[in-house]
Write a structure and sequence with these properties.
Keywords: Phosphoprotein. This is Response regulator. InterPro entries: Bact_response_regulator, CheY-like_superfamily, Sig_transdc_resp-reg_receiver. One of its GO terms (biological process) is phosphorelay signal transduction system. Pfam families: Response_reg. The structure is a single chain. This protein is of the alpha/beta class and about 270 residues long. It has two domains: about 140 residues, Alpha-Beta Plaits (2-Layer Sandwich); about 120 residues, 3-Layer(aba) Sandwich (Rossmann fold). Helices cover about 45% and strands about 20% of the residues. It contains nine helices and ten strands. The chain has a five-stranded mixed β-sheet with strand order 2-3-1-4-5, with helices on both faces. A five-stranded parallel β-sheet has the order 7-6-8-9-10, sandwiched between helices. The N and C termini lie far apart (about 40 Å).
Length: about 270
């Protein structure tokens, strides 16, 4: 099953369970908060999800609703559990994953909020973001309503389609207006037309390499009104120095922390 189909199926089953809960509950229970914990572990899946469910039920002292997709992804729906408790439970689950899973895993938490049954779009965004997460022992937080001030824009230039879609979705969820280009010429064209607040670019680009793109951006914007962030796996000191000479505001290497990347972009925009 492709990632897109997995995301679609995960979205459907999560929302279906939430709607079922709404219709089964009495009036006093409707509108309760709903924490969500999503886990992907391609190895030892059945044993791992069983252990996680047991740990969650022991912590909450009641049964936990769980759904699985493609024998590698699971969503644990924590009805009646507030955001702070969901975050705490995720930390406990991460400990279990590090103990149980021989390979890497992905973990994300979300707060569907009160009246989750009225917001199907949130589950679609949640599943799409989770599908793009790389396997890494970091808890990723999905917060649909976090918005930076204003309507700031980010131009993302990256030839890796999977990485580009993942970052594009994360930036949109943070409230940015996102422009995406798969190569240097597209990136330069969008820069000229839209004058974004931030440019996030790889160095390994087709059509125009990253250094050439940085040179052209510097000519177009000599006063550096658009902040430029290089986001690459190139760790060569000479390359790093050259980027800063070309007016780059920040240089971030992969593998990376999505939270750190977002925080550094927010800092540039202050």
């Amino acid at each position: 099953m492709s990632k897109r189909l997995e995301a679609k199926r995960l979205n459907e089953v999560m929302y279906e369970k939430v709607v079922e809960r709404f219709w089964r509950s009495d009036e006093s229970a409707r509108g309760e908060p709903c924490g969500i914990l999503l886990v992907r572990c391609p190895q030892s899946f059945e044993e791992t999800t069983r252990e996680i469910r047991t740990r969650l039920e022991a912590e909450l002292e009641r049964s936990v609703e769980a759904v699985t997709v493609a024998n590698r992804e699971a969503a644990f729906l924590l009805f009646g559990v507030a955001w702070s408790r969901t975050h705490y439970l995720a930390l406990r689950v991460k400990q279990e994953l590090m103990r149980l899973v021989p390979g890497e895993f992905a973990i994300m938490i979300a707060d569907a909020g009160e009246h989750a049954e009225r917001n199907p779009r949130a589950f679609e965004k949640m599943a799409d973001l989770f599908a793009q997460l790389p396997e890494a022992p970091e808890i990723v937080i999905f917060q649909e309503h976090v918005q930076p001030g204003g309507t700031q824009s980010v131009l993302l230039v990256d030839g890796d389609e999977e990485m580009r879609r993942y970052l594009e979705l994360r930036f949109r969820l943070k409230g940015y207006r996102v422009l995406a280009a798969e190569n240097g010429p597209q990136g330069l064209d969008l820069f000229r037309k839209m004058k974004p607040d931030v440019v996030v670019t790889d160095l390994n680009l087709t059509g125009m390499d990253g250094f050439h793109l940085l040179t052209r951006l510097h000519r177009e914007d000599p006063n550096a009104s658009s902040k430029i962030v290089v986001f690459t796996d190139n760790r060569v000191e000479e390359s790093i120095n050259k980027c800063f000479e070309l007016g780059v505001a920040d240089y971030i290497t992969r593998p990376f922390s999505p939270v750190e990347l977002e925080e550094r972009i927010e800092k540039l925009l202050q």
